[in-house]
């Protein structure tokens, strides 16, 4: 699916990716501010994004494990997700997320 990442610098990076999740798609395409240090096991939060409000229902809520990580983050909001835990399904084509950055 096509995903637009709004980077911490304010750039819009559009990616069309077959990667399994939001973190992988960003790392493969060298999107600024997404590192994926833990390899996608919800334990580093270097993939923290804010989901665009228009997409939050489709993306769905964070899991308990994610929520636990996000509670440690200064910039967490109700729309926060860990990118590695957001599976890229065809329904998410057109998704817009804001990269929180490190
Ligand atoms: Fe580490 Fe997502 S890559 S929490």
Keywords for this entry:
five-stranded mixed β-sheet; 102 residues; 18% helix; alpha+beta; 22% strand; Ubiquitin-like (UB roll)
Describe this structure in words.
By secondary structure, the protein is of the alpha+beta class. It has one domain (2-99): Beta-grasp domain (Ubiquitin-like (UB roll), Roll), CATH 3.10.20.30. The protein contains 3 helices and 5 strands. It has a 5-stranded mixed β-sheet with strand order 2-1-5-3-4. The longest helix has 7 residues, at 22-28. Bound molecules: FE2/S2 (inorganic) cluster (FES). FE2/S2 (inorganic) cluster is lined by residues 23, 36-38, 40, 42-47, 82-84. The site of FE2/S2 (inorganic) cluster has 14 residues, from loops.
Give a brief outline of the structure:
This protein has helices spanning 22-28, 56-59, 64-70, and strands at residues 2-6, 12-16, 48-51, 80-82, 95-99. By secondary structure, it is α+β, with helices and mostly antiparallel strands.
